[in-house]
Protein backbone atom coordinates (compact mmCIF):
# COMPACT_ATOMS: atom_id res chain seq x y z
CA UNK A 1 0.00 0.00 0.00
CA UNK A 2 1.40 3.34 -1.03
CA UNK A 3 0.88 6.09 1.54
CA UNK A 4 0.19 9.02 -0.76
CA UNK A 5 0.42 11.63 1.98
CA UNK A 6 3.85 10.38 2.99
CA UNK A 7 4.95 10.10 -0.63
CA UNK A 8 4.01 13.74 -1.11
CA UNK A 9 6.00 14.68 2.01
CA UNK A 10 9.13 12.97 0.65
CA UNK A 11 8.78 14.65 -2.75
CA UNK A 12 8.43 17.97 -0.95
CA UNK A 13 11.46 17.30 1.29
CA UNK A 14 13.51 16.44 -1.81
CA UNK A 15 12.29 19.62 -3.53
CA UNK A 16 13.22 21.70 -0.48
CA UNK A 17 16.70 20.19 -0.53
CA UNK A 18 17.24 21.37 -4.12
CA UNK A 19 15.72 24.78 -3.39
CA UNK A 20 18.25 25.12 -0.57
CA UNK A 21 20.99 24.02 -2.97
CA UNK A 22 19.92 26.62 -5.55
CA UNK A 23 19.70 29.33 -2.90
CA UNK A 24 23.47 28.97 -2.24
CA UNK A 25 22.52 30.02 1.30
CA UNK A 26 23.94 27.83 4.07
CA UNK A 27 21.11 28.85 6.39
CA UNK A 28 18.63 27.19 4.05
CA UNK A 29 20.78 24.02 3.98
CA UNK A 30 20.76 24.09 7.80
CA UNK A 31 16.96 23.82 7.65
CA UNK A 32 16.76 20.71 5.48
CA UNK A 33 19.49 18.54 7.03
CA UNK A 34 19.42 16.52 10.24
CA UNK A 35 22.28 18.15 12.14
CA UNK A 36 23.76 14.97 13.59
CA UNK A 37 26.98 12.99 13.79
CA UNK A 38 25.46 10.26 11.64
CA UNK A 39 24.88 12.24 8.46
CA UNK A 40 26.96 11.68 5.34
CA UNK A 41 27.55 13.46 2.07
CA UNK A 42 29.39 12.57 -1.14
CA UNK A 43 29.69 15.29 -3.79
CA UNK A 44 30.70 14.22 -7.31
CA UNK A 45 34.37 13.21 -7.17
CA UNK A 46 34.76 14.34 -3.54
CA UNK A 47 35.62 12.18 -0.59
CA UNK A 48 32.99 11.20 1.97
CA UNK A 49 32.03 13.90 4.46
CA UNK A 50 30.87 12.37 7.75
CA UNK A 51 29.00 14.20 10.52
CA UNK A 52 27.14 17.48 10.32
CA UNK A 53 30.12 19.87 10.83
CA UNK A 54 32.05 18.27 7.92
CA UNK A 55 28.93 17.99 5.76
CA UNK A 56 27.99 21.62 6.44
CA UNK A 57 31.53 22.73 5.61
CA UNK A 58 31.26 21.04 2.19
CA UNK A 59 28.14 23.11 1.41
CA UNK A 60 29.87 26.29 2.59
CA UNK A 61 32.75 25.53 0.21
CA UNK A 62 30.40 24.87 -2.71
CA UNK A 63 28.31 27.97 -2.01
CA UNK A 64 31.45 30.12 -1.71
CA UNK A 65 32.56 29.08 -5.19
CA UNK A 66 29.25 28.99 -7.08
CA UNK A 67 27.77 32.07 -8.73
CA UNK A 68 24.47 30.55 -9.80
CA UNK A 69 23.08 27.02 -9.96
CA UNK A 70 19.72 25.89 -11.32
CA UNK A 71 18.44 22.35 -10.91
CA UNK A 72 15.90 20.57 -13.05
CA UNK A 73 15.23 17.30 -11.27
CA UNK A 74 14.06 14.35 -13.40
CA UNK A 75 13.51 10.61 -12.97
CA UNK A 76 12.56 10.93 -9.31
CA UNK A 77 12.06 7.58 -7.58
CA UNK A 78 10.93 7.36 -3.98
CA UNK A 79 11.10 4.46 -1.52
CA UNK A 80 9.67 4.56 1.98
CA UNK A 81 10.37 2.13 4.80
CA UNK A 82 8.97 3.21 8.15
CA UNK A 83 10.61 6.46 9.21
CA UNK A 84 13.23 6.36 6.50
CA UNK A 85 12.95 7.13 2.81
CA UNK A 86 15.39 7.19 -0.06
CA UNK A 87 15.13 9.05 -3.31
CA UNK A 88 17.07 8.63 -6.51
CA UNK A 89 16.95 11.36 -9.12
CA UNK A 90 18.84 13.00 -11.94
CA UNK A 91 20.10 16.52 -11.28
CA UNK A 92 20.18 18.46 -14.56
CA UNK A 93 22.31 21.40 -13.51
CA UNK A 94 22.87 24.74 -15.20
CA UNK A 95 25.69 26.76 -13.63
CA UNK A 96 27.03 30.16 -14.64
CA UNK A 97 30.76 29.96 -15.23
CA UNK A 98 32.64 32.98 -16.58
CA UNK A 99 29.37 34.47 -17.81
CA UNK A 100 28.20 31.51 -19.89
CA UNK A 101 25.87 28.68 -18.84
CA UNK A 102 27.41 25.23 -18.28
CA UNK A 103 25.30 22.07 -18.20
CA UNK A 104 26.06 19.00 -16.16
CA UNK A 105 24.23 15.99 -14.87
CA UNK A 106 24.57 14.23 -11.55
CA UNK A 107 22.83 11.08 -10.34
CA UNK A 108 21.82 11.41 -6.71
CA UNK A 109 20.77 9.18 -3.87
CA UNK A 110 19.16 11.18 -1.05
CA UNK A 111 18.15 9.53 2.22
CA UNK A 112 15.63 11.19 4.54
CA UNK A 113 14.62 10.35 8.09
CA UNK A 114 11.40 11.43 9.75
CA UNK A 115 11.97 13.61 12.77
CA UNK A 116 9.89 15.94 14.93
CA UNK A 117 10.46 18.79 12.47
CA UNK A 118 9.53 16.64 9.48
CA UNK A 119 11.64 14.68 6.98
CA UNK A 120 15.30 15.68 7.11
CA UNK A 121 18.20 14.82 4.82
CA UNK A 122 20.62 12.39 6.50
CA UNK A 123 22.57 11.33 3.40
CA UNK A 124 23.35 12.79 -0.02
CA UNK A 125 25.42 10.95 -2.62
CA UNK A 126 25.91 12.62 -5.99
CA UNK A 127 27.96 11.14 -8.81
CA UNK A 128 28.82 12.21 -12.35
CA UNK A 129 27.06 10.61 -15.31
CA UNK A 130 29.23 9.77 -18.30
CA UNK A 131 26.72 9.49 -21.13
CA UNK A 132 25.03 11.96 -23.51
CA UNK A 133 21.87 13.67 -22.24
CA UNK A 134 18.49 12.28 -23.28
CA UNK A 135 16.02 14.57 -25.10
CA UNK A 136 14.10 15.06 -21.81
CA UNK A 137 17.27 16.07 -19.97
CA UNK A 138 18.35 18.41 -22.79
CA UNK A 139 15.09 20.34 -22.45
CA UNK A 140 16.25 21.76 -19.12
CA UNK B 1 20.93 2.73 21.86
CA UNK B 2 22.99 0.77 19.39
CA UNK B 3 21.64 -2.71 18.69
CA UNK B 4 24.90 -4.63 18.42
CA UNK B 5 23.29 -7.80 17.07
CA UNK B 6 21.63 -5.87 14.28
CA UNK B 7 24.81 -3.89 13.60
CA UNK B 8 26.65 -7.19 13.18
CA UNK B 9 23.95 -8.39 10.76
CA UNK B 10 24.35 -5.31 8.59
CA UNK B 11 28.13 -5.61 8.51
CA UNK B 12 27.70 -9.25 7.50
CA UNK B 13 25.15 -8.38 4.78
CA UNK B 14 27.57 -5.76 3.41
CA UNK B 15 30.40 -8.32 3.49
CA UNK B 16 28.27 -10.87 1.66
CA UNK B 17 27.48 -8.28 -1.01
CA UNK B 18 31.20 -7.77 -1.71
CA UNK B 19 31.90 -11.51 -1.59
CA UNK B 20 29.19 -11.90 -4.27
CA UNK B 21 30.82 -9.08 -6.24
CA UNK B 22 34.25 -10.75 -6.02
CA UNK B 23 32.79 -14.12 -7.00
CA UNK B 24 31.76 -12.67 -10.39
CA UNK B 25 28.93 -15.23 -10.14
CA UNK B 26 25.46 -13.85 -10.85
CA UNK B 27 23.88 -16.62 -8.75
CA UNK B 28 25.64 -15.23 -5.68
CA UNK B 29 24.37 -11.72 -6.50
CA UNK B 30 20.87 -13.20 -6.76
CA UNK B 31 21.19 -14.30 -3.13
CA UNK B 32 22.07 -10.92 -1.64
CA UNK B 33 19.63 -8.61 -3.49
CA UNK B 34 15.92 -8.11 -2.90
CA UNK B 35 14.54 -9.15 -6.28
CA UNK B 36 11.92 -6.43 -6.60
CA UNK B 37 10.76 -3.64 -8.87
CA UNK B 38 11.87 -1.05 -6.31
CA UNK B 39 15.60 -1.80 -6.29
CA UNK B 40 18.12 0.59 -7.80
CA UNK B 41 21.76 0.48 -8.79
CA UNK B 42 24.27 3.10 -9.95
CA UNK B 43 27.70 1.85 -11.05
CA UNK B 44 30.50 4.44 -11.37
CA UNK B 45 29.70 6.59 -14.41
CA UNK B 46 26.72 4.43 -15.42
CA UNK B 47 23.13 5.52 -15.63
CA UNK B 48 20.61 4.45 -13.00
CA UNK B 49 19.36 0.87 -13.25
CA UNK B 50 15.84 0.54 -11.84
CA UNK B 51 14.08 -2.72 -10.99
CA UNK B 52 15.61 -6.13 -10.44
CA UNK B 53 15.78 -7.28 -14.11
CA UNK B 54 17.73 -4.12 -15.11
CA UNK B 55 19.88 -4.24 -11.97
CA UNK B 56 20.65 -7.94 -12.48
CA UNK B 57 21.55 -7.31 -16.12
CA UNK B 58 24.12 -4.70 -15.02
CA UNK B 59 25.85 -7.31 -12.85
CA UNK B 60 25.78 -9.86 -15.68
CA UNK B 61 27.49 -7.28 -17.91
CA UNK B 62 30.15 -6.49 -15.31
CA UNK B 63 30.79 -10.16 -14.55
CA UNK B 64 31.05 -10.97 -18.27
CA UNK B 65 33.80 -8.39 -18.71
CA UNK B 66 35.79 -8.81 -15.47
CA UNK B 67 38.56 -11.36 -15.12
CA UNK B 68 39.27 -10.86 -11.43
CA UNK B 69 38.23 -8.31 -8.81
CA UNK B 70 39.35 -8.08 -5.21
CA UNK B 71 37.78 -5.68 -2.73
CA UNK B 72 39.32 -4.28 0.42
CA UNK B 73 36.51 -2.39 2.14
CA UNK B 74 37.50 0.48 4.44
CA UNK B 75 35.78 3.34 6.29
CA UNK B 76 32.57 1.37 6.82
CA UNK B 77 29.78 3.42 8.40
CA UNK B 78 26.45 1.88 9.29
CA UNK B 79 23.09 3.51 10.02
CA UNK B 80 19.99 1.62 11.09
CA UNK B 81 16.44 2.91 11.14
CA UNK B 82 13.82 0.26 11.80
CA UNK B 83 13.91 -2.35 9.03
CA UNK B 84 16.18 -0.28 6.82
CA UNK B 85 19.90 0.31 7.04
CA UNK B 86 22.41 2.20 4.95
CA UNK B 87 26.12 1.70 4.72
CA UNK B 88 28.78 3.94 3.27
CA UNK B 89 32.22 2.52 2.55
CA UNK B 90 35.29 2.86 0.39
CA UNK B 91 35.85 0.05 -2.10
CA UNK B 92 39.59 -0.35 -2.68
CA UNK B 93 39.54 -2.49 -5.80
CA UNK B 94 42.28 -4.52 -7.44
CA UNK B 95 41.33 -5.79 -10.89
CA UNK B 96 43.41 -7.82 -13.33
CA UNK B 97 43.60 -6.06 -16.69
CA UNK B 98 45.82 -7.48 -19.43
CA UNK B 99 47.75 -9.48 -16.89
CA UNK B 100 48.68 -6.63 -14.56
CA UNK B 101 46.86 -5.44 -11.43
CA UNK B 102 44.96 -2.14 -11.62
CA UNK B 103 43.90 -0.25 -8.51
CA UNK B 104 40.81 1.91 -8.22
CA UNK B 105 38.66 3.34 -5.49
CA UNK B 106 34.91 3.74 -5.39
CA UNK B 107 32.77 5.36 -2.70
CA UNK B 108 29.61 3.37 -2.13
CA UNK B 109 26.24 3.86 -0.51
CA UNK B 110 24.48 0.52 0.05
CA UNK B 111 20.94 0.37 1.38
CA UNK B 112 19.58 -2.82 2.94
CA UNK B 113 16.05 -3.79 3.94
CA UNK B 114 15.16 -6.50 6.43
CA UNK B 115 13.10 -9.25 4.90
CA UNK B 116 12.11 -12.80 5.85
CA UNK B 117 15.36 -14.13 4.42
CA UNK B 118 17.45 -11.52 6.28
CA UNK B 119 18.88 -8.16 5.20
CA UNK B 120 18.85 -7.75 1.43
CA UNK B 121 20.43 -5.10 -0.79
CA UNK B 122 17.80 -2.76 -2.25
CA UNK B 123 20.14 0.01 -3.46
CA UNK B 124 23.77 0.30 -4.50
CA UNK B 125 25.37 3.58 -5.56
CA UNK B 126 29.06 3.55 -6.42
CA UNK B 127 30.97 6.61 -7.59
CA UNK B 128 34.58 7.31 -8.54
CA UNK B 129 36.89 9.14 -6.14
CA UNK B 130 39.17 11.75 -7.65
CA UNK B 131 41.90 12.11 -5.04
CA UNK B 132 45.12 10.26 -4.19
CA UNK B 133 44.82 7.19 -1.97
CA UNK B 134 45.53 7.53 1.75
CA UNK B 135 48.24 5.34 3.33
CA UNK B 136 45.53 3.00 4.70
CA UNK B 137 43.94 2.63 1.28
CA UNK B 138 47.31 2.07 -0.39
CA UNK B 139 47.99 -0.90 1.88
CA UNK B 140 45.33 -2.94 0.09
* Oligomeric grouping of the chains: homodimer
Count of discrete domains of chain A:
1
How does the overall form of chain A come out from the CA principal axes?
globular
Class of chain A in CATH? Alpha Beta
Identify low-pLDDT runs of chain A: none
Largest interface: A-B, 32 and 32 residues
Classify the fold: give the CATH topology of chain A: Nuclear Transport Factor 2, Chain: A
Count of DSSP-assigned helices of chain A = 4
What's the arrangement of strands in the largest beta sheet of chain A?
Answer: 2-1-6-5-4-3
Instruction: Report on the biggest sheet of chain A.
Output: 6 strands, mixed
Structural class label of chain A: alpha+beta
Strand content of chain A: 35-45%
- Give the total of beta strands of chain A: 6
Q: Averaged pLDDT of chain A, please? A: 92
Whole-number radius of gyration of chain A?
15 Å
Measured as a percent range, the helix fraction of chain A is 25-40%
Topology of chain A as a string of helices (H) and strands (E) = HHEEHEEEEH
Query: Which second-level CATH architecture of chain A applies?
Result: Roll
Distance between the termini of chain A: 33 Å
